[in-house]
Amino acid sequence: MGTQPSEDRTTATASSVQPARGWATVDKPIFYISVGLVVAICLLGVLFTETVGEVAGAALNWVTSTFGWVFILGSAAFVVFSVVLAFGRFGSIPISREGEETEFSRISWIAMMFSAGMGIGLMFFGVYEPVTHLASPPPFVDAAPDSAGAAQNAMAYTLFHWGLHPWAIYSVVGLALAYSTHRMGRGNLMSAPFQAILGQDRIERRGWGRPIDILAILCTKFGSATSLGLGALQIAAGISLLRTGEFVDDPGTQLPVIIICVLTVGVVISAASGVSRGIKWLSNTNVVLAAVLLVFVFVVGPTVFILDLLPESLGAYFSNLIPMSFQSAVFGGGDWLASWTIFYWAWWISWTPFVGTFIARISRGRTIREFVLGVLLAPTAVSIIWFSVFGGAGINLQHSGVDIAGTGNEAAGFFAMLSQYPFFTGAALVVMVLTAVFFVSGADAGSLVMGTLSSYGRTTPWTPVVIVWAVLTGAVAAVLLFVGGLGALQTFTILAATPFIVIMLGLCVSLYVDLRRDPLRLRRPSPVRQATAVPSQVPFADPAPTQDPEDQAGGSP
């Protein structure tokens, strides 16, 4: 964006040029417009609560009925695109300049990626979603409530919503940004990969990239706010339960808003610490606490049932993967799809600017194959284990006559399950602490990304800008809870994500165009091949690599 010199760009390489610092590193138009839009939405939500809720609801109905097919086909296409990149001739290309090493260990890389990508959602839906699908099967499932068939399909749909599809959505955006940033030397901006098809002059100097980056910030803002709102609701449910001993159907908004305000202070402190200290430490803490909680429920819960459920769930997931991937509302079930599948796809898409940019930030040095397989398989495997243990415990209790699905509100499902096992108070405290840490680490990473997007793509944006975004993230989450609770969180997520699907498709095209020009791509055998120099604008090239004549002429690979 613009001609601002940046530490992350190859255009400012002269040692005599003093690097910009402080406020000079901020892209003012993007920052002012984005902050202005966020503040305006917050004010409208506070001053005209009912009107905003009605307009948003009408817009949601129109979007889901008109563009539901776009979410369904788009998410499936991203899975296919990711797999083709991993196992095709681009898989061995490193996401770095030649000879650069990885910045983080593989364990820390996966921990930060997983913590940023799904943390709070796993806590909120870990028990609630499987038991809800068990008690009220999806309209596309021919099974009676609470039956064995309903349980099998409940796990299949849960893993479908939390498995390969969401991480493929993250993968295509993260890979496009990582390749553009670490290998092509562009700024770490959502608009930067579009230089492959529109040119650097249009994107940076003429300002064509600014609308893309502003949309990415808004998308990130509402996606992050949704997660923070869910986390606040769950912590509030736990506090209410420990304080009164009862599950509350409607906890109200006062306590969740207070929780958001308190935890936002933690976000600000973590944001000031940077990635290597704040986010990395919190992510590793998340992994340890989550593992302790998982082992606890596995041991004190229905261990044999969980072990039996794991292969059954995997079989149901993979055998129904294609039908579930292309299930639409053409013959009914539109309300269910809007509340579950389309909401999830929109939620993941709204998180892609945040998670994609963050994954790109921490993935320097990985190969494309390692990146895609790591992003797809490691978190999916953890999700399968997570839902098999916690969802399995909830399903077992539901079958045993304990109404987990009908206990209190959505946020109380996890606590309703834990209340049936020993050491409930300690386990509930662990859940609340874990959710709070997920809250802080997720909001911290999101604030860092929004700082990057409003700072010419700098990987280490000016700390005050990051803090501004951290505070505004908490404000948006509080306003959405005030406007309409969980329903408002879902509504604004889908509305924010809808236009971003077009950006994601453009990123896929841009990445493919860039990869075709990479000198390390595997080539098809050819009887005649000329050795030519790689164009000088390709920053990752060795002195004299070769390139296909057809690539220079723009021919197909």
Radius of gyration: 23 Å
Q: Overall pLDDT, averaged?
A: 82
The description of the largest β-sheet is:
none
Number of helices: 20
Helix content: 55-70%
- Coarse shape: globular
Low-confidence stretches: 1-18, 524-537, 541-557
Total strands: 0
Spell the H/E element sequence: HHHHHHHHHHHHHHHHHHHH
Strand content: under 5%
For the terminal residues, how far apart are their CA atoms? 31 Å
SS-derived structural category:
mainly alpha
Main features:
single chain; 557 residues; mainly alpha; 20 helices; 69% helix; globular; disordered C terminus
How would you portray this structure in words?
With 557 residues, the protein is an all-alpha fold. 69% of the residues lie in helices and 0% in strands. The protein is built from 20 helices and no strands. The protein has helices spanning 28-47, 49-87, 106-135, 148-162, 164-183, 195-198, 200-205, 210-244, 254-271, 275-300, 303-319, 321-325, 334-339, 341-362, 368-399, 413-418, 424-453, 463-497, 500-516, 549-552. The longest helix is centred in the first third of the chain and has 39 residues, at 49-87. It is globular. The two termini are 31 Å apart. 53% of the residues are buried.
List the helices and strands and how they pair.
Elements: H1 28-47, H2 49-87, H3 106-135, H4 148-162, H5 164-183, H6 195-198, H7 200-205, H8 210-244, H9 254-271, H10 275-300, H11 303-319, H12 321-325, H13 334-339, H14 341-362, H15 368-399, H16 413-418, H17 424-453, H18 463-497, H19 500-516, H20 549-552
